[in-house]
Specification:
By secondary structure, this protein is mainly beta. It has one domain. The chain has one helix and five strands, in the order ββαβββ. A three-stranded antiparallel beta sheet has the order 1-4-5, with no helix packed on it. A two-stranded antiparallel ribbon has the order 2-3. Strand 4 and strand 5 form a beta hairpin. The two termini are 17 Å apart. The relative contact order is 0.33. Bound molecules: zinc ion. Zinc ion binds next to loops.
Length: 70
Amino acid sequence: MKCTKCGEEMRPGYVMVPVGSVVGWYDQEERKRAITSGFGGEMLLEPGMLRALYAEAYRCGNCRLVTFKY
Ligand SMILES: [Zn+2]
């Protein structure tokens, strides 16, 4: 996969987070709400039956950009 920013070939790998964690997406309003209430956002990776959460990802070392599908 080519980097959308610089065009270099991206390195395949995984984004992983510890058990009990989630990866969420927040727009600006949802971020403010989440800070004050602890709720909101869209969960991209949620806990499953695995020891750790992971998603296949591609990383560009030039741009420090990581792309993953949720
Ligand atoms: Zn790049």
